[in-house]
Amino acid sequence: MFKSRTVFFIVLIALSAVSIGGCRRVGVWLVKEDVPMHADAIVLLMGNFTDRVLQTADLYGSGRADRVIIAEESMGGYQGLIDRGVTIISHTSQALSSLVALGVPAESITVLPGDARSTLDEAVIVRNYLEANPEIDTLVLVSSPYHLRRASMIFGKAFEEAGLPVFTGTSGSGAYTDFDASRWWRSKEDIQHVLTEVVKIGGFITVEGRRLTRE
């Protein structure tokens, strides 16, 4: 009996260690870096756009792509403020002007009209654009490091459902953030980022991804 209990506890401890170790590696798993030598376009995903703009400018400056694509981001009550005479610059406009200030020619930036409220919305807007521009078959998504895995999954499914043979690379703005993928559990902000992404990935796989399915 004593021997059986000992074996049981050893197995339990081993499984716990594997589980904890796996959880600790989640941060690294989320950071899916896959930058092609050259892409037809860089897709700047909105959100925490300041660090992402810097990463996009770096990629463009290094010759990794000749153009930048931005799907216009929704700003909720933005139009209501405009209607009331309030002068406000949208996040998309700020991203555009920042890229130009960092050396990306305005003529190399394409802003796709829309009202994107999520990465999935951005994927649909970009997908529709690529259907009309089939010469673009290699992209690199720029986003925050912890967002890369989910962004790649969303865009990959969007293109697959449309039958578009598009290679989708990813590049994170980790050089301009404090996110620590290998020790994410030591920071409250990093914990929030990782847990949020894991939940959203689960939601995409089980529910949200169906929005991309075409009959």
Please give a quick description of this structure.
By secondary structure, the protein is α/β, with parallel strands linked by helices. Helices cover 49% and strands 14% of the residues.
Record keyword descriptors for this entry.
215 residues, alpha/beta, Rossmann fold, 8 helices, 5 strands, globular
Which strand order do you get reading across the main beta sheet?
3-2-1-4-5
Looking at the overall shape, the CATH architecture is: 3-Layer(aba) Sandwich
Please provide the ordered H/E string of secondary-structure elements.
HHEHEHHEHEHEH
How far apart are the termini?
60 Å
Number of domains: 1
Give the beta-strand count.
5
Class in CATH?
A: Alpha Beta
The CATH fourth-level homologous superfamily: HUPs
What does this structure look like?
With 215 residues, the protein is α/β, with parallel strands linked by helices. It has one domain: HUPs (Rossmann fold). It contains 8 helices and 5 strands, in the order ααβαβααβαβαβα. Strands 3-2-1-4-5 form a 5-stranded parallel sheet, with helices on both faces. Helix 3 (49-61) links the parallel strand 1 (41-44) and strand 2 (68-73). The radius of gyration is 20 Å and the shape is globular. It starts with a helix and ends in a 9-residue tail after the last helix. The model is unreliable at 7-21 (pLDDT under 50).
